[in-house]
Amino acid sequence: MIDLAFPEGVAVLDVERGKLDDISPLFWQTDTSVCRKSWGYIKDHEYKPVDSIIDDLVDIVSKNGCLLLNIAPRPDGTIPEERREILRNIGQWLTVNREAIYGSRPWRVYGEGPTREVGGEFKEGAHLLLGKIYVLQLRAAFST
């Protein structure tokens, strides 16, 4: 169970640049950026791989959460092409896999594979490897 600093139902738990390590019965959110170094505009951004952002999205949604994704616009509000491309790639993935995200519900059991997320804020990229690999097939490869 999550130790909250507020009464249930009056706020949404926000885990900045991190995730929960288990399914939450209460809705929650993670806020992070496509950029590793900053929330705002800086020169020489280091971008997260799109696959990593999508992996995080799937993990967060499967635990009853949502992802608030910052794109670090320029000072004039325009969005640099590198970040537009990241968003287009995420959009392409969502076009194919939308039913696994939109309108989904948290999974019943978290942690059926060898990797566990390390819960808490500012824990991006922290994983624990435990031993076996399981594959979850979201849709049949061939329809009949």
Structural account:
The protein is an alpha/beta fold. The protein has one domain. The protein has helices spanning 50-62, 81-97, and strands spanning 13-16, 28-33, 65-70, 115-117, 127-129. A three-stranded parallel β-sheet has the order 1-2-3, with helices on one face. Strands 4-5 form a two-stranded antiparallel ribbon. The longest helix is centred in the middle third of the chain and has 17 residues, at 81-97. The chain is globular.
Per DSSP E runs of 2 or more residues, the count of β-strands stands at: 5
The number of helical segments is: 2
| Oligomeric state | single chain
Q: Gap between N and C termini, in Å?
A: 42 Å
Quickly count the domains: 1
The largest pleated sheet is described as: 3 strands, parallel
Give the strand line-up of the largest sheet: 1-2-3
> Roughly what is the average pLDDT, rounded to an integer?
79
Proportion of residues in β-strands? 15-25%
What structural category do the secondary elements indicate? alpha/beta
Fill in the keyword field for this structure.
144 residues, alpha/beta, 21% helix
Write the layout of secondary structure elements.
Blueprint (H helix, E strand, L loop, with lengths): L12 E4 L11 E6 L16 H13 L2 E6 L10 H17 L17 E3 L9 E3 L15
Parallel strand pairs: 1-2, 2-3
Antiparallel strand pairs: 4-5
Quick structural summary:
This protein has two helices and five strands, in the order ββαβαββ. It has 144 residues and is an alpha/beta fold. The chain has one domain.
